[in-house]
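pls read this protein.

:::
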Amino acid sequence: MKQTIFTGAGVALITPFTDDGINYDEFARLIDDQIAGGTDALIIAGTSGEAATMNDAEHRAAIKFACEHTAHRVPVIAGTGSNDTAYAIALSQYAESVGADGLLLVTPYYNKCTQAGLIAHYKAIAAAVNLPIILYDVPSRTGVAIATETYVELAKVPNIVAVKEANGDLSKILRLRAAAPELTVYSGNDDQIVPILALGGKGVISVLSNVAPKDTHDMCQFYFDGKVKEAAELQIAYSDLIDALFCEVNPIPVKTAMRLKGYNAGPLRMPLSEMSEAHLAQLKAALKNHKLID
């Protein structure tokens, strides 16, 4: 049986920036508040953490700080994917050396490699580390999707243990569960948490958890406890906020929401831009509806 890194709600944590670096005091506050709110795992330097605009030193420092500050209270999963296999290996090895509990590896972007290339890429990284690996399928961002047959092949690798599915296609996830049941599946979309749990998923890697950690955790826990009605009610109740958090490209809305909640989240890094007035009003209304801001 493959290792399960976590069960429940893992937060795809934002990175609080200053004008010229990372705000580590606020980073610590975010980590502590997430753990206090019941979050089951921290995912560092992923899409929501704006890893795409971090330089190498920042990327490494963010992972190291999160591991040290979390101090094994919950698992820390480091985003170490790249379109450069050699760099992904180096970054993954570094994350392992500073105490990460797992790796999140997005499919190589821009290159648009073949399925054979995906298999070679992931196998090369897996062979270079001992950490458990979560594959990250998000074709809307990367231009390449992981085929079911590719999952079957990669499931043979001992430390490739899970998948973050953000393709939006429940039928594909059904086929994945049938073909490679040994892989843990995490929802990569907050509007599909309960549906994916119903297909045997183990949780979510969540944007929503940034602003509502307890209820995102509870949504999963209710389901695991057999309280399916309560889990579904939370999923439905949060549909307005989930829509607002994705009304512009992630992480623009969630970082704005964290500022509205009183966190010193700092600037978005270009080419990400500030929200339009109409979308900002939508976000504020949803946050107020859930009593997350006044």
Notes: The mean pLDDT is 97. The first helix runs from residue 24 to 36. The chain is about 45% helix and 15% strand.
